[in-house]
Amino acid sequence: MKKEITRLICAAICCTPIIGFAQTSDKFTSTDNLYKEGKELFQEKNYAAALPALKAFVKQKPATCLLQDAEYMLASSAYELKDKNRIEILRKYLDRYPDTPYANRIYALLASCYFYEGKYDEALALFNSADLGLLGNEERDDCTYQLATCYLKTDNLREAAIWFETLRANSPKYAKDCDYYLSYIRYTQKRYNEALKGFLPLQDDSKYKALVPYYIAEIYAQLQNYDKAQIVAQNYLSAYPNNEHTAEMYRILGDAYYHFGQYHQAVESFNEYLDKDHSAARRDALYML
């Protein structure tokens, strides 16, 4: 009996390291699997599904290099999922890892956050801190579009035009957007023929067909091509009787009638213009009325 007890004790002692090793091995395997699962889901752009695995992985306090990667994926996911704290999360990541190889993209993501909030000066500063050429093609084009728009919104038309031209040459996705904004810039610069050339092909585009007729009609009026201005304005008012540009279209129509000597129709059009936008009435329209 004594020998049997001794044998069992020895067996237990011998098995203890094996059991301990198995538990340790399971722990490491579990950690590795969490990282692998989170990374795969992140790369598939399934950001919401990636979060639980990545957060669980970070809680286990892994090696620094993997921790930095995991926290980068969490910060990027916060941006992609429009987390309300995404700016704070991205900035904290940069504070924690100032020399991270992901810094360039983090700056670009922060810039985009400020862009969508309408904080164009802040967005510009961050875009100019990043090298957009190092981003993936799609993300590079998105950020270039935002950068060009920031310049436009801050009245730096020269820089805006340069970036819209650059984007138009490289991105079919934004070609029509660039055509529109470049034409708008030419219009504001009173380069009417160039602007008209860009606006005309956009008349049937679903995104811009409710916008470009106003500029086309105004350009025709500025070029004293009143018959075409009249046609565009009439067609627009038939299609969009309550659009944001309706008042201006009545003004352009009144302008055309005035120059044709059709004064009764001009009075009606100018009165419609004043009824819809009396507070911002133009002096030339009031003079003609």
Under CATH, the topology of the largest domain can be stated as Serine Threonine Protein Phosphatase 5, Tetratricopeptide repeat
Give the count of structural domains. Answer: 3
**Amino- and carboxy-terminal Cα gap:** 121 Å
Main sheet: strands, sense, barrel:
none
What is the CATH architecture descriptor of the largest domain? Alpha Horseshoe
CATH superfamily of the largest domain: Tetratricopeptide repeat domain
β-strand amount: under 5%
Brief description of this entry?
Helices cover 76% and strands 0% of the residues. The chain contains 15 helices and no strands.
Question: Can you offer a commentary on this structure?
Answer:
76% of the residues lie in helices and 0% in strands. Helix 2 (47-59) packs antiparallel against helix 3 (64-80), helix 3 packs antiparallel against helix 4 (86-96) and helix 8 runs antiparallel to helix 9. Mean pLDDT is 88; it is low at 8-29. The chain has helices spanning 2-43, 47-59, 64-80, 86-96, 103-116, 120-127, 137-153, 157-170, 175-188, 192-199, 212-222, 226-239, 246-260, 263-277, 283-288. The N and C termini lie far apart (121 Å). It is elongated, with a radius of gyration of 32 Å. It folds into 3 domains: 27-101, Serine Threonine Protein Phosphatase 5, Tetratricopeptide repeat (Alpha Horseshoe); 104-189, Tetratricopeptide repeat domain (Serine Threonine Protein Phosphatase 5, Tetratricopeptide repeat, Alpha Horseshoe), CATH 1.25.40; 210-289, Serine Threonine Protein Phosphatase 5, Tetratricopeptide repeat (Alpha Horseshoe), CATH 1.25.40. The protein has 289 residues and is mainly α.
